[in-house]
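ENCODED BACKBONE
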Amino acid sequence: MLIKPVKINSKEGERVIASLLHRFQPADDSCRQIVTEILAAVRQQGDTAVLEYTRKFDAPDLALNDMQVSLAEMLEAYELVDDAFLETLALAIERVQSFHEREMEDSWMQTRENGTIVGRLVRPVDAAGLYVPGGQGGSTPLVSSVLMNGIPAGIAGVGRRIMLTPPNRAGKISPHLLVAAQEIGITEIFKAGSAWGIAALAYGTATIPAVDVIVGPGNQFVTEAKAQVSGRVRIDMIAGPSEVLIVADSSARASHVAADMLAQAEHDPMALAMVVTTEETLAQEILVELERQLPGLSRQEIARKSLADRGVILIAETLDAAIDLANDIAVEHLELMIDDPWAMLPRIRHAGAIFLGHHTPEAAGDYLAGPNHVLPTMGTARFSSALGVETFLKKSSIISYSKQALLEDADHIRRLATLEGLTAHAASVTERLRGTGKWAGK
């Protein structure tokens, strides 16, 4: 049996649930020292180190002058993609753009009668680094990553969007990635990947500009590098294996549930596909469907291993119990394959993205629906949100006092400053009140 269904109120069910609730893991520390050394090398040697690592692991003959994608390569890319791709790309861009435009924040001010003005000034960062994984040597270009990271940065008003992606053995980048980038206004693209690419974005080199924010998925070396440079730059998140939780009642079709489990499982052997259902018969039907559909997948072995090692099917007595468990798990992707998902939506407190109904596969959200597919994993949906326009924005507080406002607040400011033992803070107010009759001895 690929996955053994268990009841949530059984001893085995309690054990499974406990492991799910404690699934958070920090970045894989098996590569920590290696990444530390790579970051140091790039920080000290710049382009020399980036080129050395790129030649060693990706493109043996890459020249320094070819590290940045040329205008000729950008133009040639359009000749290497077909019209059907361009049509789909245009629709995806329209959807993602339209959704994320609603996320843009405005600056605001508050005024008081005594002349005090306070507020918040919203401004984009100057530069953002967009990391796009190589996708099996460029054979499976992750176009959606370009859109989901690049479009929100553009809406935020980021002046420079720097895209990095590893080249293939011939030193080339997938034309699909190059076209996608150009269609959303990204023209600074560099051939560098893994930890050395992240280091170049964090520290800058003579060729690759330093940025303020780094976003984008990657392997354990990319994840560890992002973790180590976090603080020097902002990062989107420390992401764990991708995960889905499907809540299914008697209205769900086993073939649909199995298909969505497999869509998750094919990502990676560590991907986590989970089902909580109120129907024991459905659980058995899902297992039959998994075995039926697996042989038709190009990544059959990856999906099978993922399901065998990490797949979960839990049986709940009631839909309420299933929803409560879903909130506790706080999953990246939550699918509600139930009779009336909209009625249950107000009950959902924690999920990266919520997919409602029998005709809403996670794949729709990954590619075309519009919301961002960069989502919190490992239970961090309890406090984290999807990547969005706000990832590329920062806020500055605005404070302006009139003379009258300072007179009114002076005693309160000085009282708190004195209580904290910060007499210079109090004095900075007192000095401004000389000649007003309010400063002496207070």
